[in-house]
């Protein structure tokens, strides 16, 4: 029986390797580098916030759905770096808002990191656009966390006029909200996509890019699988919380070399990656329909779970560095104490994907 189990595991491993090698190398597309935006849900919102603040000179705006307070899990910060705790992430940041720090403290840290050159100058944030959302029935990430994220942007110079904030207007659970797909609006359970008769995809893209053409009923573009392993240090995607394959949605209008298109990167939340849900998230949240008629290329990078078995060099502390639910890195797992900054593993990987698509990559 043990031999049979080992053989089955080997076969599954080879199948996964085959899937990874079948993905194409991420290519360049006719995208205006000045029209790049990011968004995410839950852990994806925290990551979208981190990526935006790290590269605010080149990212025009961010969408934060049920998450996104920068450095929320940081215990200490000084000129040598930061100390972050998973217990802060699951406590103050998610369910104990009384333990959150004042918005001014988070803003001051961002200014300090910018002065050290770890992120872009904060002045560039004032030119951004922001969409934020928290549901009234969200029991996973407390609404105050999102409110404080919005407040931090304001303290860093983002005008109120450039912000669209749905603060508990809908009795939505913890999830991406759609017009007609998913669980009941107030639910908080897989796939964390909620039918609330509200087109969040439209609201995000409209806030970031302005008035939109009507969404496509049947998108005419195509999804392209691309290899994410090349963006991980040493090709070790698994040990850094990156799934081997990401997805890119390419509208038909953006196929031609001379097209003038935009780029939106959207991050899923915990338990929503392709590792867990296949294509269910990126096919059903409504973004592709709006992207299709508005010349928006969409990057759907994919995170993955990290267990102690995924670390190439076993260490006694590995158990404290895991990511069992496939979240994006917003508390420093996998030994990444630089996760908030430009040189953080996932922030760097995601930015290199953006640079590749826009044609500004060094490789």
From TrEMBL:
SUPFAM superfamilies: alpha/beta-Hydrolases. This is PHB depolymerase family esterase. Residues 1-22 form the signal peptide. The keyword Signal applies. Gene3D superfamilies: alpha/beta hydrolase. Keywords: Signal. The keyword Signal applies.
């Amino acid at each position: 029986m043990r031999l049979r189990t080992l053989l089955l595991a080997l076969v599954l491993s080879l199948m996964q390797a085959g899937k990874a090698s079948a993905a194409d190398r991420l290519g360049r597309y006719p995208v205006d580098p000045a029209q790049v935006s990011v968004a995410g849900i839950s852990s994806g919102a925290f990551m979208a916030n981190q990526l935006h603040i790290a590269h605010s000179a080149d990212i025009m705006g961010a969408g934060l759905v049920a998450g996104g307070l920068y450095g929320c899990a940081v215990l200490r910060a000084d000129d040598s770096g930061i100390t972050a705790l998973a217990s802060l992430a699951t406590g103050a940041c998610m369910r104990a808002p009384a333990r959150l720090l004042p918005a001014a403290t988070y803003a001051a840290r961002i200014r300090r990191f910018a002065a050290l050159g770890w992120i872009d100058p904060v002045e560039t944030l004032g030119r951004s656009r922001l969409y934020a959302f928290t549901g009234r029935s969200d029991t996973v990430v407390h609404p105050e966390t999102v409110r404080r994220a919005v407040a931090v942007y304001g303290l860093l110079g983002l005008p109120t006029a450039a912000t669209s904030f749905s603060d508990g207007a809908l009795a939505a659970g913890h999830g991406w909200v759609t017009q007609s797909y998913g669980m009941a609006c107030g639910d908080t359970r897989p796939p964390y996509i909620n039918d609330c008769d509200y087109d969040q995809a439209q609201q995000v893209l409209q806030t970031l890019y302005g008035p939109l053409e009507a969404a496509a009923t049947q998108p005419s573009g195509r999804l392209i699988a691309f290899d994410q392993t090349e963006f991980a240090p040493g090709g070790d995607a698994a040990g850094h919380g990156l799934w081997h394959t990401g997805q890119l949605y390419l509208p038909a209008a953006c196929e031609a070399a001379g097209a003038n298109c935009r780029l939106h990167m959207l991050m899923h939340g915990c338990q929503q990656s392709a590792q867990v849900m296949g294509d269910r998230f990126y096919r059903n949240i409504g973004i592709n329909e709006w992207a299709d008629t508005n010349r928006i290329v969409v990057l759907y990078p994919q995170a993955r779970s990290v267990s102690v078995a995924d670390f190439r060099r076993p260490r006694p502390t590995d158990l404290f560095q895991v990511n069992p639910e496939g979240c994006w890195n917003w508390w420093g797992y996998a030994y990444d104490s630089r996760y908030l900054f430009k040189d953080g593993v996932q922030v760097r990987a995601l930015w290199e994907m953006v640079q590749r698509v826009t044609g500004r990559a060094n490789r």
